[in-house]
Design goal:
Helices cover about 55% and strands about 15% of the residues. Helix 1 packs antiparallel against helix 3 and helix 8 packs parallel to helix 9. The protein has about 500 residues and is α+β, with helices and mostly antiparallel strands.
Length: about 500
């Protein structure tokens, strides 16, 4: 991953550097060419100025005048610097040039000069135009500059300078070499900087990768530093630590759950096996067999209940699990639940009551599933309410929902356990469901309410515990055999 990121970043830097170097090279090249052409134009203007001072003189007399040395010096200077062909022309067509000197120094260049091209250029200059052009005609490209010399707004003549293009463009290779060296230096420094930056930026990711490998091996206690890297990386680190904490909790819950279930399974199995072997070996007298067979049946029932709870939770957690909705009276269900558990209530001398806010109270839900929730909550309340305690089952309507509350004045729920009370893998002996159960009742009830799109929560109480779940409030169902049309017609007759 580190190598791929480095390769991508360096490729981007390389492309950018090459593009900028190309732009820089073209810019510097054009600037140098323009600067040298400006210099030639300046030299041509100097020569034109000298020529314009010879007012009233013919060109021939000019070249023979005392100013010849100065002009020759200027022409030699330009020729020495650029190997240029220089010509001074008057309107009558008289031409004075350095053709012999130029030929002696570079005959190939002089032979490549185009007379037609020179004539066209001179005509433009004699019309008062200044020119600077690059020509690719002939054996080699050339640059041409020309300026008129004017006196009293009259064109007295023209100065024409032509040189090889390579004389103007020479030295650009050195600039290119410098640009290449600078580009390479920038790439090297950028590569070092990017390497250090990426390595520093990816260090938290490498640690996170190592932590993920530890998690894959079952070590959920690893954590990563949440204060390293950018804002996004810090958020990822916090999310990663949150995940590991939850995984650690799930793993601990799983182990404790397996331990609890193993204990719950072992206890009835051991009892059943012990009673069966005792009766088979004759340790238990024959007249005691009915008594012990009843104990075996009870333990079998307890074992079956535990297995059924596990299967029920597994079915409820399937993606395709859906409630079968119907309309029924929740108050009637609460009263039936009390009747079903009246024996356990009377054994502990518990004062139990059903206190609906309105009666009947119809809801739309899965009748069998909701009955399971009510029984689970009632069993939980009975289990943790001492002798002579009190349990209240109540219902009330709040808008479009009905709220059902099962309240007791038992031992309550410890503050540190409130946010874990519905965890499937939460250790049973630390929750409100401590005792013989495995804590699956509340987990199953929570899942049933989630299937309905409703909530099950633990309320704040000064004493004991109170669980509240919500259901969709519904209108009273139509009497059997009476349709909506029948009701409408009855209303019309009324």
């Amino acid at each position: 991953m580190f190598a791929r990121i480095m390769a991508v970043v360096m490729a981007a830097i390389l492309i950018t550097a090459v593009a900028l170097s190309g732009i820089w090279w073209i810019t510097l090249r054009n600037q140098q060419i323009d600067a040298r052409l400006d210099y030639l134009i300046s030299e041509a203007e100097d020569i034109a100025y000298l020529a314009s001072e010879l007012t009233g003189s013919t060109m021939e007399s000019y070249w023979g005048s005392t100013s010849r040395d100065h002009l020759n010096w200027k022409a030699e200077k330009v020729n020495r610097e650029f190997g240029a062909y220089i010509a001074v022309v008057d309107p009558r067509g008289n031409v004075m040039d350095n053709i012999q000197t130029a030929y002696s120094e570079d005959p190939e260049f002089v032979e490549s000069l185009s007379g037609e091209e020179i004539s066209d250029a001179l005509l433009k200059v004699l019309r008062g135009e200044s020119i600077r052009v690059r020509s690719n005609e002939g054996q080699a490209p050339t640059f041409t500059v020309g300026v008129p010399f004017v006196q009293n707004d009259y064109v007295m003549g023209a100065v024409f300078i032509q040189t090889r293009a390579q004389e103007i463009e020479s030295g650009l290779d050195q600039i290119l070499l410098k640009i290449i060296l600078i580009t390479v230096g920038v790439l090297v420094l950028s590569g070092i900087a990017v390497f250090l930056f990426v390595r520093s930026a990816l260090r938290p990711l490498r640690k996170m990768t190592d932590a993920a490998e530890n998690i894959a091996e079952g070590n959920f206690k690893v954590r990563v530093d949440e204060n390293k890297g950018g804002r996004e990386l810090k958020e990822v680190s916090r999310a990663f630590n949150t995940m590991t904490k939850k995984l650690e909790g799930v793993e601990e819950g799983r182990r404790e759950f397996v331990s609890n279930v193993s204990h719950e399974l072992r206890s009835p199995i051991t009892s059943i096996r012990g009673f069966a072997e005792g009766m088979a070996d004759g340790v238990i007298p024959a007249e005691e067999h009915p008594k012990y067979l009843r104990l075996v049946a009870d333990e079998s029932k307890r074992l079956s209940g535990l297995v059924n709870d596990l299967l029920a939770l597994s079915r409820l957690e399937r993606d395709d699990a859906k409630p079968e909705l119907s309309v029924f009276d929740i108050n009637e269900m609460l009263r039936r639940a009390i009747i079903c558990r009246i024996t356990a209530v009377e054994e502990k001398k518990i004062d139990i009551s059903c206190e609906p806010e309105e009666d009947p109270c119809y809801v739309r839900a899965d009748r069998d599933r909701i009955e399971q929730v009510v029984i689970n909550l009632l069993d939980n309340a009975i289990k943790f309410t001492g002798e002579g305690g009190k349990i209240t089952l109540s219902s009330r309507v709040r808008g479009e929902k009905a709220e059902i509350i099962v309240r007791d004045n038992g031992i309550g729920v410890a503050e540190e356990d409130r946010d874990k009370i519905f965890d499937r893998f939460f250790t049973a002996d630390r929750a409100h469901t401590s005792g013989k159960g495995t804590g699956l009742g509340l987990s199953i009830s929570k899942r049933i309410m989630e299937m309905h799109g409703q909530s099950l929560r633990l309320l704040d109480t000064d004493k004991g515990a109170a669980f509240c779940f919500t259901l969709e409030h519904a209108e009273a169902p139509a009497p059997a055999g009476e349709t909506e049309n029948d009701l409408t017609e009855t209303g019309n007759h009324a």
